[in-house]
Amino acid sequence: MKTILVLSTHPDFADTIRTSVNPEQYRVVQRLGVEEAEPLLTHGLATVCVLDIDLMGVEGVWVIERLRRRASKVPIIAYTSFSQSEWEEEAFLNGVTHVLTKPVRGRLLNSLLERLWNEPAQRAAQLPAHAPVQSSSFRPSGPEAPSRTVAESQTLDMLRDFSSILTHSLDAEGMLKQFLHFLREILSINRAAIFLNRPAGPLTEVLSPEDSRRLRSAAAIGLSSGLLEHFELSLDSGIGDQLSKLGRILRRDSDEVRADAEAQKEFELLSAQIAVPIPDRESICGVAVFDGRVTGEPLVNAELELIFHLLEQVGLALRNIWLHDQLAGNHAMMADVLRELSSACIVVGRDLKVLHANKAARRHFGRKNERTGGLEFSDIPQTLGAKIYQVLKTGAAIGSFRYEPENSPGTIYSVSVVPFQRGNSSVPVSALLTADDLTQAEQLQRLEVEAANLRLIKSMADRLAHEIGNAMVPLSTHQQLLAEKFKDKDFRESLDRAMADGVKRVTRLLNQMRFLARDGRFEQEVFAVDGLLEDAYQEARKHHPAEGAQLKLENSGKPTVITGDRPALKHALAEIMLNALQANPKTPVIGVRWQTISAKDKLQNIEIEIQDNGSGFTAEAVDKVPSPFFTTRPVGLGLGLTISQKIIETHHGKLEIVPPQAGQPATVRVVLPFEQMN
Prior knowledge:
The protein is of the alpha+beta class. The chain has 21 helices and 24 strands. The protein is 44% helix and 20% strand. The strands form five sheets. It has a six-stranded antiparallel β-sheet with strand order 8-7-6-11-10-9, with helices on both faces. Strands 2-1-3-4-5 form a five-stranded parallel β-sheet, sandwiched between helices. Strand 3, helix 3 and strand 4 form a beta-alpha-beta unit.
C-alpha cells in the first residue's frame, strides 16, 4: 500500500483526495504544513506528496523549496485554484511533477499516479531514501543489518504474499493466530502477542468509555495464557498511549519508554522488546508486541518495517471482519424481526425467486412446500404475483390495496409492494410484499358498527319516548277532563292551545326524522336568500313565541339567490334560529348577516352568520354542538344542529361554530354556494 501525503490547511481537500483514490492501494495522510509532515518525509514514509497551494506569488514556491529540502526525490503533485505562468514555471523548476487546477478529478489523478508507478526509470529516480523492502534484491545496510541470503529474501517475499490473503478472512481469532505462527516460521520470532480494541457488538452491547479504550489479548505465541487472561493494555496509558501519540514502532530502550514507568512495566511483564501499532486507516485498533528471534537475536529494521506494513493490512482486515460481524448481526436481528411479525413479508428477487418469507407469509400463502416450510413464487396468488412482477419491471411502488382471495371468502388483506434499489440504480434488485390480515379487524369493526347502531337506536328511542311523552301530557290531562268540562269556554281554549302545541312538537319531530332519513340531494329550485331567512325565522317563532323577539337582518344590498331544496334549507336555518331564540328566552334578539365571498376555482359562496344575544357557547359545547343528542336543555332530542349540518353539507356547504370569546354571544356560520342575479 502506497502513502499519499496531502499538505493542506483544508480537511475537505484531503477527504476529496481520499475518496478519489482506491483505498486498497493508497493510504491518504493529511498534514497542515511541511514542518508537521517532517517525520513522514525524513523517514521516507510518503510515496507521493499532493500540495494544496496557490501559485500566485513567491510564497507557494517557498513551500515547494522547504518540501524539497526534506524529501528531495518524492514526486509532488500541486493543486491550485489560481496560478500565473511564471510561478508555475518556478514550481516545475523546483521539482513539481504536475500542476493541476481544482477541482480534483478522480480519473485524472489516478491516471497520473499509475503513470508514476508504471514508468520504471522514473520510479527508480523517485524512490525514497528510506523505503521499505520492495523486492528480493534488496540488501539492508548499516551495522545492525547483516547481509541477506537469497533464501531469506525469498522468505520475506513469501511473507508479503501472505498479506494478500489477510483481508479475505472473516475469522479474526484464526487469522491472527495464523499470522503469528507464520511470523514464527519465517522470522523465527520467539514471543509475540496481539491486543485489540474490539468494538461493541451490533445493537446488543454498549461499552463504557473505559472499556472502549481497553486493549485485550486476541492472539499470542510463547506467552502464558494465564498471564494474558488477566492482562490488558490501554490507549490512555503505557504502551498504548505512546503508540497513539507516536503512530510508529516503539522500542523498549527508547527515550519515550524510559520516561514512562507504566510502559516500562508492561514491556517487562510481556518480556517484549518491540511494540508495533495496528492501524485501521482511521485510528489504532490494536497493538502487537515482539521480543526477538528464538536465537536471541533482535529483529532488524527491514523486518520491522515489513511487519509494520503487514499489520496495516491486518488492521484493515480486522476492520472488515468487525464490519461484517455488525452487518451479519443486524441482518440476523432484522430476519428475526421479520420472522416474528404478524404481517406477511415476502422478498422476491428479479429472477422471481423468493429470497425471504416469514412465518406469517408461509402460513397465509404456503401451499406446495408445507413439509420443508419453503415458499416459491408459484405459491403466491396470481393477483399478488402480478403486482410483484409489475414493481420489479417498473421500479414504482404500489400503495396499500385491498385483496380478497377467491379460495377463501371472507378473508381480507391489506397489501403493499415496494421496490428495493441498490445505490443510484433505478432498476430494483428485489421487491418486498407486505400483507396484513384484516379479517378479524373487519369483523370487529362490523360488530362495533352494529353495537353503535344499537346504542343509537336505544338512545333515539329513549329521547323520542321522552319528547313525545312531554307532548302527550297536556293532551292526556285535557282528555281526562273533556267530558266534565267541555262546555267550559276556558277549558276549550286551553284544550285548543294544548293540541296546537302538541301538534307543533310532534310535527317538528317528524320533520327531524324525515330529514335525518333522507340520503342524497333534495329537490332543486332557485330562491332568494332574504325571503328564506324571513320564513325560517317565522318557523322558529312557532316553537318559541316570545313577545319581545326581534330579527335584525344585514346584507350587502345585492339581490342574492341560491339553488337547492328550499323546505330543507328553511328547516336547517329554522333549527339554528330556534337555538338562538332559546339562548335568551325573555328578550331574544337574532342578528343575521350575510355576504358573498370568493371560493376556489373562481366560484362564489354566500356566508350567513346567525348570532344570538345570550351568554355564548362554552368551550365544551363548541366541540359537542353538532353531535347527535347533545343538548343543554331538559326538553328536545338534541338533533337540531345535527340535522341542520347534514342538510347544509348535502347542499355542498358547511356549518361551523365560530370560536367563542369571553362575554361574547354565540355565532353560527353557514356557507353555501350561490348564483348572483343579473
